[in-house]
Design a protein that fits this description.
7-stranded mixed β-sheet, 25% strand, globular, 604 residues, 6-stranded mixed β-sheet, single chain, alpha+beta, 18 helices, 32% helix
């Protein structure tokens, strides 16, 4: 449990999560029960914190904001100023611009380790830190209007060295679920003693990831939309029925589910909801008005178990509108339907919601955010189709099916292409949108993806006669990672998968086991890139462009500092930086910068 200081302080946040023309929500975690107040535009908005598992949270709804302006805000706890820490770097709430420009930055897969010289060398510059540095030197009209975080905001199964040491100490002292401690030595996937499991341990991940001063300021000023992926719970989560059967049989699975979903609901999902949706969310309202922390813990545990085990008990997908741009964020992980005869990345109810979200509004641009790319690198797409066809789970599973399942788990063959029914449904939906069958077609459909630890742009051609003559441009845009580079051996696999003859050979392989041709063609036009980075969509009217930026460290002594980290015992833990509660000092941290790789027009 956290040590509670005498005077409340902000532990995580404030995080600006939702903004429209006159309303906003701000999420915050504080160190003790208190009254949280935000002062903005001459008004005050207050909310009493509520507690669960020894942590204390508040979500504040700000109303009647001035349209088209940037409004600085400050946070007080029980009347004492707590934010911003630096008056020269205020946090602001920017309601939509007076023109029709919308800027959306996006990416996925971010390890939250501290910015030590050694970590900067091994896992590279942090794209979110670099984006914050860039914003400090650019006009506000060039800032993102929102950040779309496409999964793996935390890594529960691969914690940092610092958190691994904390886990070991907690296990030695008898902390954490008994089922987790008992798994030590079980071997393979059954041993989770060195992984994150309960709400308290998940809170360590969020503190590590979001307490860096640059990241705190960024997330306090740019609204954020978040969706989950496998590492928010565990690698390969819901990849197949056989995987789920094995994992749910483990004694620790209920504890892991309660920790993962309860923390995701509190730390990530609440901020995805509009004020109206928050008011109607039964779980959130029950938490706010529960009579005790114990009751809240029961509410969250019951909800988490239901979310994992009952169809329709939770919906993580959501949508946001930014003027004439609609963003639809899809859960393609927790809502999967894993019946071997009808595998789908989301169940029927969630898919019907997705169709309605994409078809119910006339917009200039439809942005679909999925943690997993829909249109993969060609050879990998074909191999995933082959894998699904040969790996079908059944009692008399032949050797080929067992081999296919092993390959699927070993190299993560569980994207849209490995759920062919859902892939075809998505292609059909894109065709409906582009055809204008349900209203004026958008200028572009932009399908965003992450997860794969490389980035690229792809052009998509819908080949159904329904889309013939459509002027709607369809693109796949993949940005991964923010900060978690791919190992070099797998980089080679990705590069080779683009080059003939491998796409042709794997296509023949998939056709040989009955995988049919889809009503779509696509090609990678730009990339692939492997550096940490961020992409930004810029939409003005019916024109759309994408800016591709990659993050770099400006090492001291003209780069000599990087080589010093290779010498054992020579590199210090920091380059003369001051450690302080809440992260590294802003003025001493090695500078991380974004460098433009590409600007490309997508429609217009």
């Amino acid at each position: 449990m956290l040590q509670t200081p005498t005077t409340p302080e902000i532990l995580v946040g404030p995080m600006l999560r939702y903004v429209d023309s006159c309303d906003a929500t701000v999420w915050v975690e504080v160190s003790a029960p208190c009254l949280v107040t935000i002062r903005a535009g001459g008004e005050e908005f207050s909310e009493q914190s509520w507690g669960v598992h020894g942590h204390h949270f508040a979500v504040l709804h700000l109303r009647d904001l001035e349209q088209g302006v940037a409004t600085p805000y400050e946070v007080t706890l029980d009347g004492v100023s707590a934010w911003p820490p630096d008056p020269e770097r205020p946090s602001v709430i920017r309601t939509p611009r007076p023109d029709d420009t919308v800027r959306l930055s996006f990416g996925s897969c971010r390890r939250g380790e501290s910015q030590t010289p050694r970590s900067l060398r091994t896992i590279g510059a942090d794209a979110l830190v670099a984006l914050a540095h860039q914003m400090a030197h650019t006009a506000r009209e060039d800032w993102p209007d929102a950040m779309l975080l496409l999964g793996d905001q935390v890594y529960a199964d691969i914690p940092s060295q610092e958190i691994t040491e904390r886990l070991a100490e907690r296990r030695r002292s008898g902390g954490g679920p008994q089922s987790v401690r008992d798994s030590a030595g079980a071997g393979g996937e059954r041993d989770v003693s060195e992984e994150i499991c309960d709400f308290e341990e998940y809170s360590w991940l969020y503190h590590e990831s979001w307490r860096d001063p640059d990241v705190r300021w960024l997330l306090s000023t740019v609204p954020s939309c978040m969706i989950l992926d496998d590492h928010d719970l565990r690698d390969d989560w819901n990849s197949s029925q056989s995987w789920r059967r094995e994992m749910t049989a483990q004694p620790w699975w209920p504890d892991r589910v309660k920790g993962a979903f309860a923390s995701y609901f509190v730390y990530q999902h609440l901020g995805n909801l509009s004020p109206h949706e928050l008011a109607g969310n039964e779980v959130y309202q029950a938490l706010r008005w529960a009579g005790s922390d114990t009751e809240r813990e029961r509410i969250l545990s019951d909800f988490a178990l239901a979310a994992d085990g009952e169809v329709g008990a939770a919906q993580w997908s959501f949508k946001r509108d930014f003027g004439s741009v609609r963003v639809v964020m899809l859960d393609v992980r927790a809502s999967r339907h894993l019946d071997p005869d009808d595998r789908r990345v989301m169940d029927a109810d969630e898919w019907e919601w997705t169709r309605d979200a994409c078809l119910s509004e006339d917009v200039d641009h439809l942005v679909i955010g999925s943690s997993l790319p829909a249109f993969m690198l060609p050879a990998l797409h074909n191999v995933e189709g082959w894998s699904e066809a040969v790996s079908r789970d059944r009692p008399d599973k032949p050797l080929s099916a067992r081999l296919g399942e092993r390959i699927r788990l070993a190299v993560d063959l569980e994207h849209w292409a490995a759920f062919r029914n859902s892939f075809d449904d998505l292609v059909g939906l894109l065709t409906e949108v582009a055809s204008g069958e349900h209203g004026r077609p958008p200028a572009s459909i932009l399908v965003l993806g992450g997860d794969v630890h490389c980035s690229y742009l792809g052009e998509v051609d819908l080949t159904s006669p329904l889309a013939a003559g459509s002027n709607t441009r369809v693109h796949q845009l993949v940005m991964s990672p923010f900060r978690n580079p791919l190992q070099k051996s797998i980089r080679l696999v990705n590069r080779v998968s683009l080059r003939e003859p491998l796409p042709t050979l794997t296509r023949r392989l998939s056709r040989a086991v009955g995988v049919r041709e889809p009503e779509v063609r696509w090609r990678v036009t730009d990339g692939i890139w492997f550096d940490n980075g961020v992409m930004t969509l810029v939409m003005r009217g019916r024109r759309a462009t994408v800016e591709v930026d990659h993050a770099h460290v400006e090492w001291p002594a003209r780069g000599l500092g990087r080589f010093l980290t290779l010498v054992p015992g020579l590199a210090p833990d920091s380059w003369g930086r001051r450690r302080r509660r809440g992260g590294d000092s802003l003025e001493r941290k090695p500078r991380q910068v974004l460098r433009r790789t590409l600007t490309k027009e997508l429609s217009g």
